[in-house]
Amino acid sequence: MAETNPQIVSASREIAAPAATIFELIADPAQQPRWDGNDNLVAAEAGQRVHGIGDVFTMTLTVGAVRENHVVEFEEGRRIAWRPSEVGKEPPGHLWRWELTPLDDGRTAVTHTYDWTALTDEKRLVRARATTADKLLGSIDRLAALAEG
């Protein structure tokens, strides 16, 4: 079913790789700049692999800023979601989510969602509106190239 709230953007596609392989690329922040379709991420220190709700990992953005990412949803191999924030501050209300549904041993349905329904920081609204389904699909496509390669 198509999402009708313009503040919740998502994209989906099938990837010809096992869910565990795909999930490792998502749950290890050091891998995220390799597949980021928004061209927003530069680097993350190794050793920050996410293992559960409450974990926090840091990323360096292309503009040089560092963001803390607070994991708020987690199911190993299936679902991960985080809320980014400036270091030491409360998350302003947007969320990135990945959902993986194994179809068989070598195929996985992948859905990537950006939800900014709770975003309160006015200076982030322009960027939030610019995050389109095409950009999310770009991340999924890059992720597929890595996982299928």
Automatic annotation (TrEMBL):
It comes from the Bacteria. Coiled coil: none annotated. InterPro entries: Polyketide_cyclase/dehydratase (IPR019587), START-like_dom_sf (IPR023393). This is TetR family transcriptional regulator.
